[in-house]
Amino acid sequence: MNKAWILHIFFILLIGLTGCGNGEESTPQDPAAPPAPLTVEFQSSPEPAIVDQPVTLQVTVTQGSEKVSDANDVQFEVWQEGQEQHKMVPAENRGEGIYALEVAFSETGKHYVMYHVTARDMHSMSQREIDVQAAK
After folding, report:
1. Overall domain count for the chain
2. Cα angle value 48/51/57 (rounded, 5°)
3. Is residue 7 domain-resident?
4. Does the residue 31 lie in any domain?
5. Which end of the chain is more exposed for a tag (fewer CB within 10 A), N or C?
6. Which of 66, 67, 126, 70 is nearest to 93 (CA)?
7. Of 83, 88, 85, 84, whose CA–CA distance to 114 is shortest?
8. H/E element holding 7?
9. Position 51 in a domain
10. Of residues 107, 126, 106, the one with CA closest to residue 116
11. If you write DSSP's letter for every residue of 110-127 in order, what string do you get?
């Protein structure tokens, strides 16, 4: 074979290989880049809370745009204003990044809830105030 044929075959192969892509470029993730932080949204329902009636405490956990359904530990710390004793109660994983707990407060007044979320080697916690009112 002469050199012209070899070059011709080489160019055909080169064109064939470059045509195999799907046109979408993928950007590899930088392995040194830190992961996105956890985002935790807290809700309590119903509002206002009524003494001796069930209240759902719920957090929705996300990391970037992904819902985190594989948290290692999600707990709610619950106490009434002035109490030194706090209860730590594990939340139920309801899927789609939602973790919840149903509680009933036995006394009116200010109560506090602090969520503790441990997921993907990160921890997030924040305190919320719940005003518990008497039944009407």
Report:
1. 1
2. 55
3. no
4. no
5. C
6. 70
7. 88
8. helix 3-18
9. yes
10. 126
11. EEEEEEEEEETTEEEEEE
- CATH code of the domain in which 65 resides: 2.60.40.1930
pLDDT of amino acid 26: 46
Q: Tokens 């935790």 belong to which residue? A: 40
Tell me the three state secondary structure of residue 30.
coil
Task: State the CB neighbour count (10 A cutoff) for residue 97.
Answer: 21
Compute how many other C-beta atoms are within 10 angstroms of the C-beta atom of residue 63.
16
pLDDT of residue 74: 98
Residue span of the structural domain in which 97 resides: 38-133
**Residue pLDDT tens, the chain, 136 long:** 565 555 555 555 555 555 555 545 445 556 778 899 999 999 999 999 999 999 999 999 999 999 999 999 999 999 999 999 999 999 999 999 999 999 999 999 999 999 999 999 999 999 999 999 999 8
